[in-house]
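Task 17 of the worksheet. Students: predict the tertiary structure of the chain below and write it out as structure tokens. Keep your answer in the requested format; marks are given for formatting as well as content.
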Amino acid sequence: QLQLVESGGGLVQPGGSLRLSCTASGFTLENSAIGWFRQAPGKEREGVSCISSSGGSTSYADSVKGRFTISRDNAKNTVYLQMNSLKPEDTAVYYCAAHPLFGLCVAQNGGRWGQGTQVTVSS
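Model answer:
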């Protein structure tokens, strides 16, 4: 079965950190651009970050620049999202998705999606 699985979510206090992982089973991520997206209750889904298949290109939403870092380890078939200085407004379900091209990831066009992991930032 081809699927993406997100992990690493949880409850954290404002200012804290979490590292999300996106792992593929049944296929390799090394030829895919991978993106992280989030959706808060009552809000539209938004793009958080994308990384190209080689890792040479990355993009970030303005709201997370300087706080979040995307990276990948193709040997482990995993992409990470390191989230620092978390704010209550970062609370959302975070999804990862695999896209054939970096541009499609940035455009949130298509892709193979995981089920999501909940991130809650609250004191």
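Marker's comment: The first strand starts at residue 3 and ends at 7. The first helix runs from residue 102 to 106.
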